[in-house]
Specification:
Layout: E1 2-11, H1 15-24, E2 32-35, H2 44-47, E3 64-65, E4 78-79, H3 101-110, H4 118-128, E5 129-131, E6 145-149, H5 155-166, E7 182-185, E8 187-188, E9 190-191, E10 194-195, H6 198-203, E11 212-215, E12 219-226, E13 229-236, E14 241-252, H7 255-265, E15 268-269, H8 271-276, E16 283-284, E17 296-304, H9 316-329, E18 341-345, E19 357-362, E20 380-387, E21 395-397, E22 408-410, H10 417-434, H11 437-440, E23 443-448, H12 456-466, E24 467-469, E25 499-501, H13 516-531
Parallel strand pairs: 1-2, 1-14, 2-11, 5-6, 14-25, 15-16
Antiparallel strand pairs: 3-4, 6-8, 7-18, 9-10, 12-13, 13-14, 17-20, 17-23, 17-24, 18-19, 19-20, 21-22
């Protein structure tokens, strides 16, 4: 068995792992190892903004499917999660949003997470952000994570934003500013017309540090303990069995699906479940794998009267011309992240001022795995909506004690009636937006939902049949103080020493937005906690 010693062993090379590898290796005396199950980010589509459309399935994902969803017609829903250095930030739609300030105040004031209010964590958002357009109290300009405007929004995206205004949703130039509500063009995690993943922004600039080791293609088998102290990690690097000793800490950053799996394989989790798989119990922590909270996105799809959307580039000769334009001039459709436009708005079911719906507009149809499309040869557009703070909770469980076995993922979508009610309002609002003059002049027909969907029951059935993950799993090793909490407010695993969890799995509840920027914020703050810079 190959053995080596480090101060910090980071398990998972996604967004959070890349941040921590950068920050912890700033100390030249600290030996840092970053382990990633996936491969390198050398596929060219990863770095092209438009490449997102090809990344929701294939070799850079785990190939997960959910357990049959009882409240969504017992469907097994594709569950895209990244398996590549940079994690989700290497394959996502690059949308840059960070939630409403009240999300973090809720963590601090209602969910036992002292020190995590928006006022206290805002500095980490700003520290991470390298915005090329916006500045001031709400934006950072010097951070590693490149953020920029979509260079030339598609005509259909512009028509979408105008239709939103016609439907009563005002224009908002900055979803991450003082006001979240409204419609507009998303800023994206891109820089110089290329994707700026955490691997590009945080890891690539420091890869040559002599105290930083990065290994890809590594399957972690378990975390090693001596009593209640984590002392290292056992993994397979594709050639041989390895043991990495952690003199200081093991830091788990494998995401809301991978982290609870690794914890349970290591004997940390619900004792009865571990015993079912004949895993020795190191710590009976019932919250590991519980509380899975994800956005249930529901798409509507329209066919256009002509080739006005990105779908025209499905033809090889158009795609070839677009590629030449991109490589020669860094312009054209390849600079689009596809999901250019969006909105935060109100379902009308509550009286609060905080939006409870989020919308993503795609200047194309069938761009993502599992999403319906338009007839072959036609062009279309898609609008996705979801309830931003769903009440439904699910689980992540082991399928077996074999580290190579995929976990059982049950988001339990739409288990709570309020989630269904709010989701339906999102679909209705989406249809209303598509029927406004600025889009209607381009729309030939709305195929999903078609004209037969009229009643409340019809819309509920549509939501159950066509909803899917929005790729935002969180909360499976939640932070807090109650008995279901897995980590404390310092990200330390309860009852154990030498081990922390520092990724999206520690969120006590889902934030009202995309989750990449919040995950990076968590890792930025965690790096200060680990180094004692509080």
């Amino acid at each position: 068995m190959k053995e080596a010693g480090y101060d910090y062993v980071i398990v998972g090379g996604g967004s959070a792992g890349c941040v921590l590898a950068n920050r912890l290796s700033e100390d030249s005396a600290a030996r840092v190892l970053l382990l990633e199950a996936g491969g390198k980010d050398n596929h060219p589509l990863i770095h092209m903004p438009v490449g997102f459309a090809k990344m929701t399935t294939g070799p850079h994902t785990w190939g997960f499917k959910t357990a049959p969803q009882r409240h969504a017609n017992n469907r097994e829903i594709p569950y895209a999660q990244a398996r590549v250095i940079g994690g989700g930030s290497s394959i996502n739609a690059e949308v840059f949003t960070r939630g409403h300030p009240s999300d973090y105040d809720r963590w601090a004031e209602e969910e036992g997470c002292d020190g995590w209010s928006f006022k206290e964590i805002q500095q980490y958002f700003l520290r991470s952000e390298g915005n090329t357009m916006m500045s001031g109290d709400w934006h950072g300009t010097d951070g590693p994570l490149g953020v920029s405007n979509v260079p030339d929004p598609q005509p259909m995206t512009r028509a979408f934003v105008q239709s939103c205004q016609e439907a009563g949703i005002p224009y908002n130039p900055d979803f991450n500013g003082a006001t979240q509500a409204g419609s507009g063009i998303y800023q994206t995690t891109t820089k110089n017309y290329r994707r700026c993943s955490a691997a590009v922004g945080y890891l690539k600039p420091v890869r040559k540090r002599p105290n930083l080791t990065v290994e890809t293609g590594c399957m972690v088998k378990r975390i090693e303990f001596e009593g209640t102290r984590a002392t290292g990690v056992h993994y397979f690097n594709g050639k041989e069995q390895c043991r990495a000793k952690a003199e200081s800490e093991v830091i788990v950053t494998s995401g809301a699906i991978g982290t609870p799996k690794i914890m349970m394989l290591s004997g940390i989790g619900p004792a009865a479940h571990l015993q079912e798989h004949e895993i020795d119990v190191v710590a009976d922590l019932p919250g590991v794998g519980e509380n899975l909270n994800d956005h249930f996105g529901i798409d509507i799809v329209a066919e256009l009267k002509g080739h006005y959307s990105l779908d025209k580039y499905n033809k090889w000769y158009n795609a070839a011309l677009a590629g030449i334009q991109y490589y020669a001039f860094k312009s054209g459709p390849v600079t689009s992240n596809v999901v250019e436009g969006g909105a935060f708005w109100h379902s009308g079911l509550g009286e609060g001022e905080i939006p409870d719906l989020q919308f993503h507009f795609l200047a194309g149809a069938g761009a993502e795995a599992g999403v319906p499309s338009v007839p072959q040869g036609a062009s279309g557009i898609t609008l996705n909506s979801y309830t931003v703070r769903p009440k439904s909770r699910g689980t992540v469980r082991l399928r077996s004690a074999d580290p190579a076995a995929l976990p059982v993922i049950d988001p339990n979508f739409l288990a709570e009636p309020d989630d269904l009610k709010c989701s339906v309002e999102g679909v209705k609002k989406s249809v209303e937006i598509f029927r406004q003059p600025s889009l209607q002049k381009y729309v030939k027909a709305i195929h999903f939902p078609d004209a037969s969907v009229k009643t409340q029951e019809d819309f509920e059935n549509y939501a159950r049949q066509y909803g899917r993950t929005s790729y935002h799993p969180t909360c499976t090793c939640k932070m807090g103080q109650d008995e279901m909490s897995v980590v404390d407010t310092q990200c330390r695993v309860r009852g154990l020493d030498g081990i922390r969890i520092c990724d999206s799995s520690i969120m006590p509840s889902l934030v009202g937005s995309n989750t990449n920027a919040p995950t990076i914020m968590i890792a930025e703050k965690a790096s200060d906690l680990i180094r004692g810079n509080r």
